[in-house]
Amino acid sequence: MWIGWIEFDVLLGDVHSLKQKRAVVRPIIAELRRSTEASVAEVGAHDLHRRAELGVAVAGPSADRVTDVLDRAERLVAGHPEVTLLAARRRLRRADDD
Questions:
Q1: Measured CA distances, 8 to 44, 73, 96 (Å)
Q2: For tag attachment on the chain, is the N or C end more exposed, with fewer CB atoms within 10 Å?
Q3: How far apart are CA 40 and CA 13, in angstroms?
Q4: Quick one: DSSP state of residue 37?
Q5: How far is 62 from 59, CA to CA, in rounded Å?
């Protein structure tokens, strides 16, 4: 089994409150869940209005399958015009790696 995850650091557009931030971030999270069938959550920068950290995690039978899902997630986030992708950090591990 292979396990992979990717963390996105994104800059939000014209956002001036946490309520506006949620209105931008929630649809992105929902779309990531729907299109990747992975676990997705806001994992950091909770108190910042214009920044968000999103995490996507997936397990699969092969490294190729996991990498494909992570690639799809990165393209989706990068393609959203209301956010700017500042950084994407990913890891890929085999379940029996020590």
A1: 10, 10, 26
A2: C
A3: 21
A4: -
A5: 9
**Location of structure tokens 């700017």:** 84
Per cent of the chain over pLDDT 90 is 72
AA letter at 18 = L
Q: What is the pLDDT of residues 74-95, one digit of tens each?
A: 999 999 998 999 999 999 999 7
Tell how many helices (H) and how many strands (E) occur in the chain.
2, 4
Structure tokens given for 94: 């085999």
Say what the pLDDT of residue 37 is.
Answer: 86
Reduced to 3 states, what is the DSSP secondary structure of residue 40? strand
Residue type for position 41: A
pTM of the model: 0.87
